[in-house]
Amino acid sequence: MKIKSANFIKSATSPEHYPRDGRPEIAFIGRSNVGKSSLLNSLLGVRGLARTSSTPGRTQLINFFLVNDKFYFVDLPGYGYARAPVEVKKHWGPMAEKYLATRQDLVLSIVITDLRHEPTELDLLMKEWLEARGKPFIIVATKADKLSSNQLRANLSRTSAVLDTKAIVAYSAVTRSGADRLWKEITSRVAHRGAQVAD
User: Fold this and answer.
1) What pLDDT, in 10s, does the model give residues 143-163?
2) What is the reported pTM?
């Protein structure tokens, strides 16, 4: 995928603030501090487009980025950050869940885990929630560059066992290893949506 343009469009908290142009959307989901923004920036080849932070839980809105004027990357609030204020946490869950459950333009969810650690119960619950609702998704295990080849194989196997799926992309935001496979999945979903609209 050649990135010709990638622009932040808007932040939203509820459906009335979402874009209304009908372009397909790819959602990025993961617990706080799992590397969501780094993954998004790496895929787009644009440093700093999605804000990264050493403070987990910084993304508290649904952020829309228009890519090549054709589709959106949607950065959802991270889940599971214990130190976030209670009122903020209470708002995050329903906001993200409503988007995932009702958004007609959503064609793929990218569930992000940290390959260095075993997936959490929240990661498993998110995967099961998407499955139960028939929502297309792919699991991306980030920070692959921080592991040796043996560790990478072992941790991929462990992640696959915990999440009960072999559909996992090992990814490095540093080397962009895994980018081609992930882009193939994204472009396939975007093209499929385009074909549906044309019909």
Assistant:
1) 999 999 999 999 999 999 999
2) 0.87
